[in-house]
Structure formats: structure tokens, C-alpha cells
Fold HAD superfamily hydrolase.
Amino acid sequence: MDNKMFFFDIDGTLIDVNKDIYEITDASKVAMDELKSNGHDVFLSTGRCKCFIVDGVSSYPFSGYVTCNGGHVSYKGKTLYKTVIEPEAIMETMNLCSQYDMNYYFESNDYIYIKDRHDPTHVHFANKWGMKDEICVDHFDPYHIESYIGMIYCNNLDDIPVMIEKLSPYFDIQRHRSRHSFDLTLRGTSKAKGIMELVKAMHRDMKDTIAFGDGRNDLEMIEEVSLGIAMGNAVPELKKVANYVTANIEDEGIQFALQHFGMINQR
């Protein structure tokens, strides 16, 4: 098999905090190691920013990173592509959250800018998803930060329509598995766009790309790559566009699919 570029989502693909899976399984690590030993590149492709990647994932030696839903792309420690949120979009989000008691998160490589680090909803959210307190900054100037993606948490579900109305001019708003939280991805930005920029920078070809995902923010990626694989626990709309649906994360879906396509040895 020609050298390929493999892209792995984090939440619901490599780990699942809802099932207390906070690190890459041993079977997935062995499978990715075999891919690398066979000359393939193994990348992360995630909605999380670099500092929000949990230790159980960041400890693995990936070839490069497509983070922030494609808003930041790096390879061998060098930034290849980024899209930066304008201060006006951050200010609009901050004002909205103050008015409607929502929580916001604006993510960079090193810090996440938040409304209030002591807010009980934030503390619960951070503990569940592995957001370390030392990366959270709740006093900042929106005109002097660089952020590549936002998140928003709506405490009251009735406020979601006004949130979408106010922020849609700036962001593509993608709902998480939780009914309360959403990615705020800059319009025109996606994991697919980030992957295409990485492929171009590396002088490779999209025909060499393979991706694993499970969520709504994986839709463009799974459709754009040469082989898009949905986890068994993926949302229904992703399964519809995937080339192949593998097993659930807890049933070693990554290993199962790679063996199915003859990309690693049977075990």
C-alpha cells in the first residue's frame, strides 16, 4: 500500500469521557504504531485546541495536528495554517453570554479564554472533559488574544435560538452530543479544510487520506477524504456519509477497521 495520511478524531474516536475512556486504548496504539512502521503518517484531527488535548492522547507521538476543527494545522512543531477569530466576534459572544447566563470558551494553542473559572457549570464541564485549570484565563483583552475556535454552553435550552441568531453571522455552530454545548467554528473553516491545507503544504494528494470520526464536526472531513470511516458509536448523519462504519470505540473500532482494509496485520 502506498504511503497514506491517517487522521483520527479524539472524542468518541480515540477516547470517550462519557465511558471513562480518557486515553488511547492499547490496541489502538499498537495499530497506529504499525501504521507508522509501515511508512504512513498518523495525525490528530480534532475540535480541541492543542492545550486541551488530554494527557492520554497528547502523549502519543503523532506526525502532526489538525486542531480547532481545522482552525490550526501544525506539522513537526511548525504552524502550516491557521484562521484567527476576529475580536468583534469574541465581543459579540461575551456580551451574549453576559446577557443570557451562558459560558464561552475561546481556544488558542496555549490557553483557553473563559468567562469565569469559578463558575460551577464551567468547573463541572472542565473536570469532565479534562480542561486543566492552569490553561484557563478569565481576565483578558479580546483585542490582544489569538483564538482559532470557540465553544459555548447554554445553561437554558430555551436560549439556544437567540444564540444561533446572534452568532451565526460569525460562526458555523455545531452541536455536541450534549444538548447544551456547541462548537463555534469560523465560517469556511472545517477539519476538511485543515486537512486539505496540510496535504497541500506537504505536497501530497487527497487520494492518500483516510480519516476516522464520530461527530457532527467530522462530516466534512469524512466526506472529503479518500476513505472516511465512522465509528460504530457515531451520530447517524455521519454514518450516512461514511465509506465504512466500524465497531464502537470500546470494541476497538479503529483496530477492527484497519484490519478489515488490510492496513495492519490480523491479531
Notes: The chain has nine helices and 14 strands. The mean pLDDT is 95.
